[in-house]
Specification:
Blueprint (H helix, E strand, L loop, with lengths): L4 H25 L4 E7 L4 E4 L6 E5 L2 E3 L7 H4 L2 E7 L5 E8 L6 H12 L7 E5 L3 E4 L2 E10 H13 L4 E6 L10 E6 L1 H61 L2 H11 L3 H11 L4 E9 L2 E8 L3 H8 L4 E12 L6 E9 L8
Parallel strand pairs: 1-5, 5-10
Antiparallel strand pairs: 1-2, 2-3, 3-4, 6-9, 7-9, 8-9, 10-11, 12-13, 13-15, 14-15
Helix pairs in contact: 1-5
């Protein structure tokens, strides 16, 4: 699957929208806004119920008091209920089967075209509490008004900082009945959603920036380690080459051979002390830490033990079978042994 910048942006926007839609209601659940009731005197004039002298007027889409100042102080973070005058609504008395209670809103929405001059998308509407009239039927009062006309009022109070705005209708001559709510604007939730989106975007940008810096730092550190590893490897190779070059140097090799090779004088001296008088050598070869002897002895079998008893020799063995010739005074033998004597060591 190929991802471009637009698709990634769409993914991030959907994620932000999802998280914000969870955060905003959660934050609203902990808020306790104060209630402000307002009575509509006309489409543009209103009176605060708690303050009969407090009259508000919509000027350029914003509520102002009698002095011409914005009414933000009264409306800010308040749950405002605006009860508009009856002439702004269309009322209809309806009755339905009791079973319609389970889907009453859908029934009314489907009937808006027939009951009002507006479509369901162009109108706001609400109904009074259903009352049973017997014979398994209910009756209620429907109140409807054009959406654009009501939204102007809702947006005006929302712009003044209201937490939420509920628009209600009271039927003329029925002042004792509860007002019928027809529309609600949750501005606090909208503002919270906006703040949540903004905060999430900043957090996301910060996380991406941190990830980018971490990746860059990791890359630099990795490059430093790689360079350092190559440097150590190069130094190791140079050291090995130097060692090998030194090992091939004639003087060093001769000096090394001098200490590692057996000392012939010590070997001959030890053999002269060990071998009995009835034994004489015909051949002696010394090299690579070993000595090879060939000669004649009246009792060749004892020679191996005699060599082993000396600290100068070890691992003495016959390197060939012992033979006897009639014209010889003894046995012909061939023996090899490891030489332990080195330069500078006592035998």
């Amino acid at each position: 699957m190929r991802l471009n910048s637009d698709s990634l942006r769409g993914v991030f926007d959907r994620w932000i929208e999802t998280v914000a839609s969870v955060v905003a209601p959660a934050g609203e659940a902990f808020s306790r806004p104060r209630a402000v009731a307002i009575d509509g005197l006309s489409e543009n004039a209103f009176r605060i119920a708690q303050d009969p002298g407090g009259v508000l007027t919509l000027v350029d889409g914003a509520p102002v008091d009698q002095t011409g100042h914005a009414a933000n102080a009264v409306l800010r973070d308040a749950r405002v209920t605006v009860t508009l005058p009856p002439e702004m609504f269309l009322f209809r008395d309806l009755d339905f089967p009791s079973k319609a209670l389970d889907f009453l809103d859908g029934v009314l929405r489907a009937q808006i075209d027939r009951l009002t001059p507006w479509s369901s998308a162009q109108a706001v509407f609400g109904h009074s509490a259903p009352v049973s009239v017997g014979l398994d039927r209910i009756k209620l009062t429907l109140a409807a008004a054009p959406l654009t006309r009501i939204e102007q009022i809702v947006r005006a109070f929302g712009a003044a900082g209201a937490h939420s705005v509920v628009i209600a209708a009271r039927r003329e001559g029925d002042e004792t009945a509860a007002p019928i709510a027809v529309h609600e604007g949750a501005f606090r939730r909208e503002r919270t959603m906006l703040e949540a989106r903004r905060g999430l975007r900043h957090a996301l940008v910060g996380a991406l920036a941190f990830a980018g810096l971490s990746a860059a730092a990791s890359g630099l550190l990795g490059a430093w380690f790689e360079t350092r590893t190559e440097s150590v490897a190069a130094e190791t190779r140079q050291w090995r080459h130097a060692q090998m070059a030194g090992a091939r140097d004639p003087d060093i090799m001769l000096h090394k051979h001098k200490f590692e090779a057996p000392l012939a004088v010590l070997v001959i001296d030890q053999l002269a002390r060990i071998l009995p008088d009835d034994t004489y050598l015909r051949e002696l070869q010394l090299g690579e830490g070993k000595v090879e002897l060939a000669g004649v002895s009246a009792d060749a079998a004892r020679l191996v033990a005699m060599l082993e008893s000396s600290p100068t020799f070890s691992r003495a063995t016959f390197s060939a079978p012992t033979t006897h010739t009639p014209n010889e005074p003894g046995d012909q033998f061939h023996i090899q042994a490891q030489v332990n004597a080195r330069y500078g060591q006592a035998p």
